[in-house]
Amino acid sequence: MIGVLGGTFDPIHFGHLRPALDCLQALGLDEVRLVPLKVAVHRPQPMAAAGVRLAMVQAAVAGVSGLVADGRELDRAGPSYSYDTLASLRQELGPRVPICLLVGADAFHGFLTWHRPAEIMDLAHLVVMQRPDAPEPSDQVLRRWLSDLGCAGPQELRRRPAGRILRLPVTQLDISSSRIRTLMRAGQSPRYLLPDSVLEMAEAAGLYQDSTARADHDCSTPGASRPVQPETEETVCSLNN
Questions:
Q1: Alpha helices, DSSP H, located in 176-226
Q2: pLDDT for 89-130, tens place per residue?
Q3: Which of 29, 103, 124, 144 can bridge 99 by disulfide, Cβ–Cβ 3.0-4.6 Å?
Q4: CATH number at residue 211
């Protein structure tokens, strides 16, 4: 059983990494794929180039068993939709392996507005990362989905490849990529908000130093509010960007 956590990762930070590790351990996942998006749909495009963001994810998870950088969205033209990413994974893994799409609570509340939401449920389970006291969704259809498809624990996710919804409390870290970018633009250090390896890479590439540093830097790569704050469906999960 694998998890999929997506986002702009501009840059990746501990607010992404700790919930990913929580899910890996609590659900007994074989791995969590961290998938940087290429083309955002309902938000401004990432500042750092796609290859740089993938390299930062690779640096962040280096040596961490079970966390894997996955660059498949960078190889695909057009908008970065969750459905397309999951369809690609399903083709790679086969029909029987359970796939868990990790989403924040706010993103889940808007799930029915996503691109092909019902078909996403045919490809994967939803694991909703949330605070223990997270409010119920207001949408009545989504409430019915929770009633019909909700499950109590990871053992139920393992019994089928897709189609169930599990709400999972995760560590809450009030960190955002936008705060990190703002600090760096102001000449202040964001140390202890993100891995040192990622910070060093961003500084070496001159990222986030001013508002014009948007996608002109590159790195060599081998060959990809509230504490849990989703952005849009197209980031697959998108936490704290």
A1: 177-185, 196-205
A2: 999 999 999 999 999 988 899 999 999 999 999 999 999 999
A3: 124
A4: 3.40.50.620
pLDDT digit string (tens) for 135-168?
888 889 999 999 999 998 999 999 999 999 999 9
Rounded to the nearest angstrom, the gap between the alpha carbon of residue 206 and the centroid of all alpha carbons in its chain is 24
The residue segments making up the domain with residue 169 are 2-235
- Mean of all residue pLDDT scores within the chain: 87
Question: Is 240 a member of any domain?
Answer: no
Per the CB < 8 A criterion, the answer to whether 12 and 194 are in contact is yes
> CB atoms < 10 A from the CB of 192, how many?
10
Q: In angstroms, how far is CA 135 from the centroid of its own chain?
A: 21
Supply the DSSP symbol for 211: T
Upper half-sphere CA count for residue 157 (Cβ side, 13 Å): 28
Q: Is residue 241 a part of any domain in this protein?
A: no
Output Rg (C-alpha) for the chain, integer angstroms: 17
